[in-house]
Amino acid sequence: MKWHHSLSRAYWLWIRVKRYPQYARRLGADPPVLDQLDLAMDLLWPFARRVFLMHRVDELPYGVIAIAVDVDVATVERCVADALWSVRMVRREFE
User: Fold this and answer.
1) What residues does the RNA polymerase sigma factor 70 region 4 type domain cover (predicted)?
2) For position 83, which CATH number holds?
3) Looking at the 3D structure of the chain, how many domains does it have?
4) How many CA atoms does the CB half-sphere of 55 hold within 13 Å?
5) How far apart are CA 56 and CA 88, in angstroms?
6) Could you write out the three-class secondary structure of the chain?
7) By the 8 A CB rule, do 67 and 40 touch?
């Protein structure tokens, strides 16, 4: 992972933990699933969001994404894992 990606990821993880309760309260007690997914995507650092959408929406394999964004495959895997963790965290909050 390139140093600036690592720094950016650490910053966004810190922001996500700090701002998550504030964002979750805005959604109310029983928000629709799409609103929950929007929140999960908003809590991701922009690079991870881009990689996750390339993987899920464009259905690109990790290797192709890594070449397209000029990182190694491990960074792509970490970004997808961050996105899935964000979705799981938000979904558990409202179950």
Assistant:
1) 35-78
2) 1.10.10
3) 1
4) 24
5) 16
6) CCHHHHHHHHHHHHHHHHHHHHHHHHHCCCCCHHHHHHHHHHCCCHHHHHHHHHHHCCCCCHHHHHHHHCCCHHHHHHHHHHHHHHHHHHHHHCC
7) no
Residue 70, sorted as left (phi over 0), alpha (psi -120 to 50) or beta, turns out to be left
Tokens of 45: 């650092």
Q: Position 72: which residue type?
A: D
- Stated pTM of the model: 0.73
Q: Please give the average pLDDT of every successive group of 10 residues along the chain, which has 95 residues.
A: 65 67 70 81 85 93 95 91 84 76
Could you give the angle at the alpha carbon of 51 between the alpha carbons of 45 and 53, nearest 5°? 100
